[in-house]
Amino acid sequence: MSSTFTPLRAVILTFDQIDLIDFAGPYETIYQARDLATGNKLFRIEIAGPGLTAADNAATMSTYQGLTFKQHISYSQVLDELADIDLLVVSGANWATTEKLSQWEEFPVRRIIKEFAALPSRDAADGRPPRVLLSICSASFFLAVAGVLANRRVTTHHLIIKELEDLCAKLYGAGSTEVVRKKFVDVGALENGIRVVASGGLTSGFDASLYAIELITNVKEAERVSGILDYRWVRSEGLI
Predict the structure, then answer these.
(1) pLDDT exceeding 70 applies to what percent of the chain?
(2) 20 lies in a domain?
(3) CA 224/CA 158 separation, integer angstroms
(4) Where in this chain does the record put each DJ-1/PfpI domain (predicted)?
(5) What domain range is 175 assigned to?
(6) Apex CA 77: angle with CA 73 and CA 80, to 5°?
(7) How far is CA 227 from CA 32, 179, 221, in A?
(8) Digit-coded pLDDT (tens) for 132-183
(9) In the chain, is it the N or the C terminus that has fewer CB atoms within a 10 Å radius of its CB?
(10) 2 found inside a domain
């Protein structure tokens, strides 16, 4: 195996009361991805949250279900290093938490999404794949308030499709955003080449993460990972 291989950088944005499967499902999926040429792990995965400082290098967060986990980097570090991130994953939460955070104009995750979506285009000559912005479950609401979903189609947990339709209509105008019930949706490429992918609810995060792997490598690698997970990935259940 090549000793010079440099893994791609994946950052998962977390916050207090995220949903466990919205966080752990994508983590496990992208953890299993391999570089096609060397067999090395494709991603270096980092968990980002609000509480990490130089004086507190073991800040913790809790999921809605009560599981406590450690953060690796802070939101401020993510903002400083956005250009180095290849895959940005945004976790979802229960509806009460999602509604509250999507209304909070100073929510750092909103700013991170907005600035990531506005990065300059990558130089194709550097050999790195296009960046991917991956929204899990209700995190599509955070994409909406960050201005990413105008004139696009998207999905979210099927129980809150109407709420996302209403939010997008308020933000962008009636009929601007099409919200569908799918395992995942390829929202499309932004002007700078960043590819946006959104998942449906909960376990649909596996499907969307597999599709993100396909975008970054190819469909065979995504299928290999689904086999490792022993998860039946039906690609046609997404909207591509």
Answers:
(1) 96
(2) yes
(3) 28
(4) 9-180
(5) 8-237
(6) 155
(7) 10, 30, 10
(8) 999 999 999 999 999 999 999 999 999 999 999 999 999 999 999 999 999 9
(9) N
(10) no
Collect all residues with Cβ–Cβ distance below 8 Å to 79 and sequence separation of at least 6: 111, 112, 115
State the Cα–Cα distance between residues 86 and 7, nearest whole angstrom.
10
Torsion of CA 182, 174, 22, 240, to 10 degrees: 40
The length of the chain in residues reads: 240
Phi, psi of 109 (to 5 degrees): -60, -35
Tokens for 198, please give them: 């959104």
What are the backbone dihedrals phi and psi of residue 191, each rounded to the nearest 5 degrees, phi first? -60, -30
> In a 3-state reduction of DSSP, which class is residue 141?
helix
Number of domains forming the structure of the chain: 1
Give per-residue burial for 158-183: e unless 16+ CB within 10 Å, then b: eebbebbbebbeeebeeeebebeebb
Asked if the structure places residue 1 within a domain, the reply is no
Task: Report how far residue 150's alpha carbon sits from residue 136's, in angstroms, rounded to the nearest whole number.
Answer: 18
Q: Where do the H-state alpha helices sit in the chain?
A: 20-31, 75-80, 95-103, 108-117, 140-145, 161-172, 204-216, 219-229
Listed in sequence order, the DSSP H helices in 13-138 are 20-31, 75-80, 95-103, 108-117
pLDDT in tens, 27-40: 999 999 999 899 99
CATH number, residue 30: 3.40.50.880
